[in-house]
Design goal:
- The chain has 161 residues and is an all-alpha fold.
- The chain folds into 2 domains: 85 residues, no CATH class; 58 residues, no CATH class.
- Helix content is 59%, strand content 2%.
- It contains 9 helices and 2 strands.
- A two-stranded antiparallel sheet has the order 1-2.
- Helix 2 runs antiparallel to helix 5 and helix 4 packs antiparallel against helix 6.
- The chain is globular.
Length: 161
């Protein structure tokens, strides 16, 4: 279990590992990227001439190397892309936790800590990992912990230990 004073997105991906990172890349929806106007920013950030599922799959080793090297800008673009691609899961998790939101988006002033009680990450994982991608569930609980601006964030891995 890793602890980070201020967790960054690249650290979340690093904690997930290469295989889960690749799995998350495979879940990115080009249609959702276009809807949320994230297609071009991701295309530019990934340095791809053509952005589609196949090009992301082929670029995954290079993208992983950049994330491991600490490329926070790339990690941010990938995180946004994954989140909007799985917005229905985001909404389910926020509803499960009782966090007020508008179609999966919550105000930055929302007191998340009030809803993230002891053991919340494990509860979310147990409730959703069989219904949705376990890699996404682990990513999202860590992303949500980061958004909560907790002083010290423990990286949740879902691995027993």
């Amino acid at each position: 279990m890793l602890r980070w004073p201020v967790m960054q997105l690249h650290a979340i991906f690093q904690g997930l590992g290469d295989a889960r990172f690749r799995e998350l890349l495979a879940q990115i929806s080009m249609g959702r990227l276009k809807t949320y106007q994230l297609y071009e920013p991701l295309k530019v950030r990934t340095h791809l001439h053509k952005l589609n599922a196949d090009s992301l799959k082929k670029a995954a080793p290079r993208l992983w190397d950049r994330v491991v090297a600490g490329d926070e800008a790339l990690a941010s673009e990938v995180a946004q892309s994954v989140l909007v691609s799985k917005m229905e899961v985001v909404i389910e998790v926020l509803d499960f936790l009782g966090i007020p939101h508008r179609d999966g988006f919550f105000e930055k002033e929302t007191p998340l800590a009030e809803h993230l009680t002891e053991g919340w990450q494990r509860r979310v994982y147990e409730a959703f990992h069989t219904k949705h991608s376990p890699a996404f569930v682990v990513f999202y609980v860590n992303h949500l912990a980061k958004e909560a601006h907790e002083d010290e964030v423990t990286l949740f891995s879902a691995d027993p230990a």
